[in-house]
Specification:
With about 280 residues, this protein is an alpha/beta fold. Helix content is about 40%, strand content about 15%. The protein has helices spanning about 45-50, 55-60, 85-95, 110-120, 140-155, 160-170, 170-185, 190, 200-205, 225-230, 245-250, 250-265; strands at about 1-5, 5-10, 10-15, 35, 60-65, 105-110, 125-130, 210-215, 235-240. The chain has a seven-stranded mixed β-sheet with strand order 3-5-4-6-7-8-9, sandwiched between helices. A two-stranded antiparallel sheet has the order 1-2. Strand 1 and strand 2 (about 5-10) form a beta hairpin. Helix 3 packs across helix 4, helix 5 (about 140-155) crosses helix 7 (about 170-185) and helix 6 (about 160-170) runs antiparallel to helix 7 (about 170-185). The longest helix has 17 residues, at about 140-155. It is globular.
């Protein structure tokens, strides 16, 4: 746990394998920092920890993951869930960790939105942004987020809803749904996030680092891709056939391969090849 922006934040990090010292004594295993940001409400850093964290560290990156405020093992204040609050948390966390070089940001779903918002506000502290099933904080995207939060806040506190989830999708999914309902009942998240002040289109377009966006072909989020390209013409877009919003969990090896190749080709990051999981 670290103290950042007035709350206790649960942080996990993985270091790359140690390398041989170079001519001036620097460790070749000390790679650039990749910050992984998970999605909203039903997610936590576990979605990175059990999928891509170790493969990215094995490729030579310092990997930092953290639970967003109110999520996982981080503190759950009753209020303070605007986009600015999440960006402030990320900024304070990096300061507390003494990360001073520009970081590579990798966000899943709303975690990508936080990454884009951070890059818009702190352009000198970002080396690249990769997002899985996400969008910059545009009014169209935030309206979708608000509708999903409203539906969840209305449905999940109902006992019959959890019973239906158990019957249809199993106890594990039902536990996550219950935790999400508790988060929405105990905090102002569902009210704060839709009321967030958003960066302007010009501020988003000013992000001039390499950008990668991955989408599932069967997810509604891919509909936003053309608008994102208009804002960020340097963006590389990859659509994975047959995949839904859960592409990170369903196709982690594809995400790993695509992001590492992009870091190598577009960001000039020296990353090693990583063996595919059996």
């Amino acid at each position: 746990m670290i103290r950042a922006n007035g709350i206790d934040v649960h942080v996990e990090h993985l270091e790359p394998p140690a390398g041989e010292p170079d001519e001036v004594g620097a460790d070749r295993g000390a790679g650039p920092t990749l910050v992984m940001i998970h999605g909203m409400a039903s997610d936590s850093l576990a979605s990175w920890y059990f999928t891509l964290a170790k493969p990215f560290a094995d490729a030579g990156l310092r990997v930092v993951m953290y639970d967003l405020r109110g999520h996982g093992h981080s503190e759950r204040p009753p209020t303070g869930y605007t986009l600015d609050d999440f960006v402030d948390d990320l900024s304070a966390m990096l300061t507390a960790l003494d990360v001073t070089a520009p970081v590579h940001l990798l966000g899943n779903s709303f975690g990508g939105t936080i990454a884009f918002a951070y890059a818009a506000r702190h352009p000198d502290r970002v080396a690249s942004v990769a997002a899985v099933e996400s969008s910059p904080p545009t009014p169209a995207w935030m309206a979708r987020v608000a509708r999903r939060l409203d539906r969840a806040a209305d449905l999940l506190p109902r006992p019959e809803a959890l019973a239906q989830i158990v019957a249809g999708r199993g106890a594990r999914v039902a536990r996550r749904a219950r935790d999400t309902g508790e988060l929405l009942m105990a905090t102002t998240l569902a009210r704060d996030l839709p009321a967030s002040a958003l960066p302007s289109a010009a501020q988003i377009s000013a992000i001039d680092v390499p950008v990668l966006c991955l989408y599932g072909a069967n997810s509604a989020v891919v509909e936003l891709a053309p608008a994102v390209v208009r804002l960020l013409p340097q963006m590389r877009t990859v659509v994975l056939p047959g995949e839904k919003h859960t592409v990170l969990v369903d196709r982690p090896e594809a995400v790993r391969r695509l992001v590492l190749a992009w870091l190598r080709e577009e960001c000039s990051v020296e990353v090693a090849e990583v063996a595919t999981a059996p």
